[in-house]
């Protein structure tokens, strides 16, 4: 449905709020102007303490296909995919971005997970962001820098798919029941592409 709107409806350019079955999301392609987005991208590449995390699978350590970092004010450790992260304190850039996205998201975030996809071989596979610490109907705000990547949603009962291309400087807010009914992923691509950084702001209870 949203795909049809994008091509058939002249208002599509200004439409930012999308209601799908069992969830809704906001997508603002030009949330940050190019100059600001470039500045943040460079600062995040240079200053974030990126880590190669790995996970134990059948007795072997397997590297995640991306670099990660965890920042925020909450010192409760956060667990996902079998690893536990303790947050670094907010950096100036992260606080600035957080302040810019909160009015549009309608919540105050206390942490952010950062993912760095070095090339098309890096990815994140089907999952939900529905960990216990995030509570019922979590609001997750995702900010994107660098290379454009496909972001896919799949309804867990009907199999329906929605696909977005997340642009440099864009904001995606996932909300409502979405995390309880839809999985999402950023698939690998064979295209020769440069780096991408994604920030997902969250509220840890
Ligand atoms: O890179 C993205 O756009 C998504 C990242 C994500 O789903 C996550 O960190 O949970
Ligand atoms: Fe996610």
TrEMBL record:
Pfam families: 2OG-FeII_Oxy_2 (PF13532). InterPro entries: AlkB-like, AlkB-like_sf, ALKBH3, Oxoglu/Fe-dep_dioxygenase_dom. It comes from the Bacteria. Keywords: Dioxygenase, DNA damage, DNA repair, Iron, Magnesium, Metal-binding, Oxidoreductase. Its cofactor is Fe(2+). GO terms for molecular function: catalytic activity, acting on DNA; demethylase activity; dioxygenase activity; hydrolase activity; metal ion binding; oxidoreductase activity, acting on paired donors, with incorporation or reduction of molecular oxygen. Residues 108-205 form the Fe2OG dioxygenase domain. GO terms for biological process: DNA alkylation repair. This is Alkylated DNA repair dioxygenase AlkB.
